[in-house]
Write a structure and sequence with these properties.
The protein is mainly beta and 175 residues long. The chain is built from two helices and eight strands; from the N terminus they run αββββββββα. It has one domain. Strands 1, 2, 3, 4, 5, 6, 7 and 8 form an eight-stranded mixed sheet that branches.
């Protein structure tokens, strides 16, 4: 019996606190803190695209939608009502560091993502001040990319995994 066999499915491994979003941010809108969307892509074996950043997160405010790539860099900002891209927005190229919400003398910080009711915070490497802080976040959408590899041709699995199946380090005959 493994150490995780008797875990309750409602629990997490870190159980310091089980607060709800409303407990932490009283004026948070009554929406899910994070929506999840699965983006599917298909490839033939041996034709998997290079590991380039992809759109991983959408942060919706009253007037804008901020697109954040898989490196947590803001890659696009659009006007929420017209859909027009703002190619000169101050947070383009800045890294998402989370969200913040101030109540009186207390600053609440959400990481790694902002949640509804907070303001998203972007910063640039080496800078102490934020590159930008958004207005209040209304919606956060996480995109999970699922890649399906079509394995119809003989030897396709070998093409995909050959680098992992034939290690040369520490074996006889290695160069």
């Amino acid at each position: 019996m493994g150490e995780f066999d008797d875990l309750d499915e409602e629990k997490t491994l870190v159980e310091e606190s089980r607060d709800t979003l409303k407990d932490l941010i009283p004026d948070a809108p009554p929406v899910a803190p994070l929506e999840v969307v699965f983006d599917r892509e298909m490839h033939q074996a041996g034709v998997i695209s290079a590991d380039v950043p992809y759109r991983a997160l959408e942060i919706w405010t009253q007037n804008r939608v901020y697109m954040v790539d898989s490196t947590m860099t803001c890659c696009e900002v659009r006007d929420r009502h017209t859909g027009v891209e703002d190619k000169k927005h101050s947070v383009l190229g800045a890294r998402l560091v989370g969200g913040q919400r101030k109540y009186g003398k207390t600053l609440h910080v959400a990481r790694p993502f902002p949640v509804p009711g907070t303001e998203a915070v972007f910063e640039r490497d080496g800078k102490r001040t934020p590159a930008g802080v958004t207005s209040k976040v209304e919606r956060v959408v996480l995109h999970i990319r699922v890649t399906s590899v079509v394995m119809e041709q003989q030897g396709a699995w070998d093409d995909v995994t050959s680098a992992f199946l034939h290690p040369s380090f520490g074996h006889r005959g290695s160069r």
